[in-house]
Amino acid sequence: MTKTHRDGHAGPVSGGGQVSRAPAHPSPDGPLPADPQLARELLDGLAEAVVTTDRAGRVTLVNAMAGQLLPELTPGTDLAGGTVPALARAVTGDAATFDAEHRGRRLRGVCRPLAGGGCAWYVRDVTDEHARTDALLAERSRTAFLARAGSRLGLSLHREQTLRSTVTLPVPYLADAALVVHRPPQPGEDVPHWLRYADGDPGPVGGVADPELTGAVPGLVEALSGATTDPSPWLDAELADLDAVLPPEFGRPGTVLISPMPSAGGPAGALVLVRRVGRPGFDQRDIELAREFAARAGSAVAAAELYGEQAHLARVLQHSLLPPELPPVPGVTLAGGYRSAGDSLRIGGDFYEVFPTATGALFALGDVCGKGVGAAVLTGRVRQSLQTLRLVEQRPRELVALLNRALFDSPDAARRSQFTTLLLGSTEPGADGGLRVRIAGGGHPSPLVVRADGSIVEARVGGMPIGAFASATFVEVEVRLAPGELLLAYTDGVTEARGGAAAVEMFGEQRLRQALATVAGLPPAAVVDWLLQLVDEWLDGESHDDIAMLAVRAADPA
């Protein structure tokens, strides 16, 4: 008898009127389907190999994947018998896992105990996983190498140091020995030079390349000529000519890789990487890495050469523009001081000059418009003009007027708005043993006179900047220095030096006057050194404009 449930379904009726319902899900502790064919299909559908053994360690079952990965194992095979060495070692060593190469594949297995004392080995093929991991690690290693190489190459601005980094960085990561063949930057010297570093060498060694070297190594001539072809490995057992540039104990070269070192100005050289016999050859990723490294090295060498040229030019310019050693002048004691605004080149727009004359000396102190290299060029022009014009005119005001005309008439002077302020003075011995000083001014701060009693007097000199106006007017004043009295000419870099507690307050003329009052009667060299020290302490390392000063005093009696 059946009853209809409220939901419309019919079901069997048990005693007492209760409805008996079948469970919605089978119990997990219930019996599994006893269907060998179904079990076999399930095992063969797994993506990993399954091998079961009995209590004695003999194979009782292998699935389809096990037949592919471990064809040596069949039902009845003793795992400890060694047909699969990795499994045999794991079984005899009571290990529950193994990870080893088998038939060119990387296999990883784990053992799970079975009821009745048997065991089930689950084996996976992890070859592709290992390959991806190895590729990722290799790429990270290459990236780290390039980053380290870029940092080392970028830090060096000297050509020889850059070449040394180029041969040491690839060893031993890319090769057992590295060789850079390059042409020196000196004009007229076209003979290639080489620099080598091998694993185990205490440091790089170099020499001049023989003509046979470039022809003996395949691809070297092309690389030195700037060929842009991709580098390629050369497996040549007859590369005996490399023995001349390799260490005696290196042995016969195995694989050689040539990479050009391109740069914007032409080929900087060629990088030769050599591996010993027995080390694997260069694969495609090694070639690409070597090409990238050689390109960076070529750019670094070119940058170092450019820096070397600029440094040489700067040294020449600096030598010609630095204030000269003051010549001895009978009856006059002089001292000069100088600080340039630039941090790298000790040249700038402030200058001083002293020229001995028949009666004493002609001196000049000036400050050209601007600073740095541009100001230095104008400084050189002013000083050269003074050198020439003083031969035809030594009166200060007339000489200033001639200099103004020379600068104003120079090409493109108006367009560049280049001019200079200047103090130009002449000295003649006085009857009392002092000095008679005539000073002409061109828009420059007036010099200060330190009297014997410590008082400070300003020698007022006006005038207009030199080289700014064609019809500029200039004035001249005369100052008499008694024995022991001193005249100080200075540029505005002294009074406008900003420092102090907030690094914004100017040194100022008042502070300069107070400092001069404390050194009255001292020789000019001591006065200049003291003032420079005070200004340096005031600046306390802050940036500043060019600074120049010139002190003039009558010489002490013999």
Automatic annotation (TrEMBL):
SUPFAM superfamilies reported in the protein's UniProt record: GAF domain-like (SSF55781), PP2C-like (SSF81606)
Keywords, alphabetical: Hydrolase
Domain spans labelled PPM-type phosphatase: 329-554
Domain GAF: 159-311
InterPro entries documented for this protein: Bact_Sigma-Reg (IPR052016), GAF (IPR003018), GAF-like_dom_sf (IPR029016), PPM-type-like_dom_sf (IPR036457), PPM-type_phosphatase-like_dom (IPR001932)
Hydrolase in keyword set: yes
Location of region: Disordered: 1-36
Database matches in Pfam families: SpoIIE
Gene3D superfamilies documented for this protein: 3.30.450.40, PPM-type phosphatase domain (3.60.40.10)
Superkingdom of origin: Bacteria
Keyword match ATP-binding: no
The protein's name in its UniProt record: Serine/threonine-protein phosphatase
